[in-house]
């Protein structure tokens, strides 16, 4: 059970310094985070969309301790949207945001996060695209869902993320499916206590399928965040059973993981969206990618041994 250990390390300043200082780290990080600036990420956007893929863009960074940092995070997204506008990609390039970046954990954080995220949602709508609110640990979710509900009054395409390992998610999925939301379903990538979350893979997988069925049979737009071949096959079967066309749901996978599968699904006519992160504050994002899948950790450790 290395995942919880890695997630704990993601909050350690000492581990942050050690990992960041390792000579091989940057070239491994580049597998998952293909740039630090908008200028560096624009060619990646061009390449992916040129291959028939769609994107959701994440400006990495979660350790926000001041309102000024939250404002800077908002402005980073506004810069990205300003650069995307002339490309006329529309919904092919949406944004994913973590409300913690917009000040959610600060005093008065709910109102602060809403005030910061609204201009991003407005700017995205102005260029024909939208924003998805990422889920974080369970203590933040009531605030996230309330902000999602508020934004959807004016911007109904605003999406949100739900996590299969949380006990509450089956009820959340029923509510969201009934009101026609855009919903990304993921397994979950935070260390959560047994009182609120499934702890074993087989339990999480079964919950994922139950929730997926609810979304497919509902009125919303399911976004399937998984690299698991079995869950991809189950998704296709549930979509057929529910009578959904290929443009009535989509797959989402992380940049740097199963790239051949991205292309295969797109070639079959599926909407395939690549979660593409960029920025300098990459540590927390990178460590969660290692925790999610043993193969990612093995890739990192092999690289350190062979290049260190």
Order of helices and strands: HHHHEHEHEHEHEHEHEHEHH
Morphology call: globular
Share of helix, binned: 40-55%
User: What's the Cα radius of gyration?
Assistant: 18 Å
Low-confidence regions: 303-308
Give the helix/strand class.
alpha/beta
Number of strands: 8
Strand proportion: 5-15%
Average of the residue pLDDT scores: 89
Separate helix tally? 13
Strand ordering within the main sheet: 1-2-3-4-5-6-7-8
Largest sheet report? 8 strands, parallel, barrel
N- to C-terminal distance: 26 Å
Verbal overview:
With 308 residues, this protein is an alpha/beta fold. The protein is 53% helix and 13% strand. It has an eight-stranded parallel barrel, surrounded by seven helices. Helix 8 links the parallel strand 4 (159-163) and strand 5. Helix 5 (67-84) packs parallel to helix 6, helix 6 runs parallel beside helix 7 (141-154) and helix 12 (283-292) crosses helix 13. The two termini are 26 Å apart.
Defining traits:
308 residues; alpha/beta; 8-stranded parallel β-barrel; 13 helices; disordered C terminus; nucleotide-binding
Task: Describe the structure concisely for a colleague.
This protein is an alpha/beta fold and 308 residues long. It has helices spanning 2-9, 13-21, 25-32, 38-50, 67-84, 109-126, 141-154, 169-178, 201-217, 229-242, 259-267, 283-292, 294-307, and strands spanning 54-59, 93-97, 131-133, 159-163, 182-186, 221-225, 250-254, 272-278. Strands 1-2-3-4-5-6-7-8 form an eight-stranded parallel beta barrel, surrounded by seven helices.
């Amino acid at each position: 059970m290395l995942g919880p250990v890695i997630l704990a390390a993601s909050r350690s300043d000492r581990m942050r310094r050690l990992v960041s200082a390792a000579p091989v780290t940057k070239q491994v990080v580049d597998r998952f985070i293909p740039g630090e600036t908008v200028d560096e990420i624009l060619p990646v956007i061009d390449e992916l969309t040129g291959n028939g893929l769609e994107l959701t863009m994440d400006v990495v960074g979660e350790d926000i301790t001041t309102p000024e940092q939250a404002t800077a995070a908002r402005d980073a997204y506004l810069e990205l949207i300003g650069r995307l506008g002339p490309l006329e990609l529309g919904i092919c390039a949406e944004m994913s945001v973590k409300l913690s970046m917009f000040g959610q954990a600060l005093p008065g954080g709910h109102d602060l996060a809403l005030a910061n995220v609204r201009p991003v949602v407005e700017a995205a709508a102005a260029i024909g695209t939208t924003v998805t609110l990422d889920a974080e640990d369970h203590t933040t979710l009531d605030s996230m869902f309330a902000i999602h509900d508020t934004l959807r009054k004016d911007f109904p395409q605003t999406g949100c993320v739900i996590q299969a390992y949380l006990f509450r998610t089956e009820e959340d999925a029923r509510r969201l499916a009934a009101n026609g939301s855009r919903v990304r379903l993921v397994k979950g990538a935070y260390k959560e206590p047994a009182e609120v979350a499934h702890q074993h893979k087989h339990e999480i997988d079964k919950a994922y399928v139950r929730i997926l069925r609810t979304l497919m049979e509902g009125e919303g737009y399911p976004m399937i965040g998984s690299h698991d071949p079995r869950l991809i096959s189950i998704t296709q079967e549930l979509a057929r059973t529910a009578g959904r066309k290929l443009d009535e749901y989509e797959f989402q996978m992380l940049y740097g993981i199963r790239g051949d599968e991205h292309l295969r699904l797109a070639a079959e006519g599926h909407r395939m969206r690549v979660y593409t992160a960029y920025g300098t504050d990459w540590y927390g994002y990178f460590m969660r990618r290692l925790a999610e899948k043993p193969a990612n950790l093995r890739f990192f450790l092999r690289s350190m041994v062979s290049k260190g």
